[in-house]
Amino acid sequence: MWYLMERKVRTGRLKKGMYVSNLDRPWLDTPFLIQGFYIQDKDEIRALDQYCEYVFIDTDRGIAADMYWDENFTLPSNKFLDAFLINRIREVDYKYETTVADEMSAARVAFEGAIKKFLAMVSAIKQGSNLDLKKIKSLLNPLIESILRNPDAMLWLSQLRSQDDLVFSPSVHHTVIAIAFARFAGLPQDDISHLAVGVLLFDIGKLNVKEEVLLKRRLLNDEEFVKVKQHVDEGYDYLVLLDNLHEESLNTVLTHHERYDGSGYPNKLSGRQIPVFGRLAGMIDCYQAMMSERPYSAAISAHASLQKLFGWRNKYFQTELVEQFLKCMGVHPTGSLLEMKSGEVGIVISQNPERHIKPNVMLLLGKDKKDLGNYPVVDLMGESYEVLRGLDPGAYGIRPRDLYTEGRIY
Fold first, then answer.
1. I want to staple 62 with a disulfide (CB 3.0 to 4.6 A). Which of 19, 188, 212, 353 is the partner?
2. Rounded distance, CA 401 to CA 90, Å?
3. Residue 277: inside a domain, yes or no?
4. Per the confidence metrics, is the pTM higher than 0.90?
5. Which one-letter DSSP state was computed for residue 161?
6. Which domain holds residue 31?
7. Which among 1, 34, 30, 29 has a CA at the least distance from the CA of 19?
8. CA nearest to 175, candidates 143, 130, 215, 149
9. What is the rounded distance in angstroms from the CA atom of residue 49 to the CA atom of residue 13?
10. DSSP letter string over 267-282?
């Protein structure tokens, strides 16, 4: 007896050469006249994606998929981070080994080197070179080592340094935050490395999207949005061919646009179907995007970004993950502009591990809102200063990146 080998596949995982045997809706509700056909080109895939969330393919008649969908489908998840979110037990208890001031020099070398090397790799890939995972890990290791000694120096630099490339520079900034959170959660160093590789590379598929689309100064039309969404699958398809790329890194790339309520893409995974690294990567991507100047949207403060994330818990993002992320970053994250009740204005330069609502602040403006010049640092744990509010980037004409570039702070 012959049995039909039908497998359920999300439309985002379809490829040329698959045989579509059935749809998730009646054939008459779609423009497909033939009930059962081989996929010939990307236009047919786009059409299927427009009308269906998933289809059934006959694996005896066409090529197989690299991922199938069923109600119990899950991807492997990092056991240490999942356990931390459940019981708050850290596998490794990292200690602060340096002060921000002492760590700043090494952090700057590591951060600047990572930006330069990564953008050079992206440029080489555009010219036809293959991605070298050894080089990826060599640029990540100094970042990881510095953040393990003291995360605040690198987080400070990440907020102050301008982005040379609006498409791929953010990848390094995302990675810094991911490593800092992994340190906070007590992940072993190998696991931190797997996370860092995945976060650094999760937008690599954007190499196949025209830059004018990615930097467009208005909302994308439907066709452009479909193309941008394809960067996830295209990045995954490119990276899955590499040797020695860890499964957790690969799955981070695949799932960083999935959302906890199933509203994401490309596979509409939900809840724990999304590996925890993917859940974290998606949240960091969203958080960093809100704080960045984009062609179609003004930046908001880190404090406001965290408030938005908190409002999206158990919807787009896992509640426990959001709550721990807020504890890691602090109520006022490093790099945030703050106005004191006394009238002074300053910038957060580091967190107090014992009490994250009381960071260390470098005062920039006095009560009269004039430049102080010498920029004293105050510890809100032991000082009489109280925070009135967080400020959006550019408030009172302050541009911390300019102060950093001019060498007036650190």
1. 19
2. 34
3. yes
4. no
5. S
6. 6-58
7. 34
8. 143
9. 10
10. S---GGGS-HHHHHHH
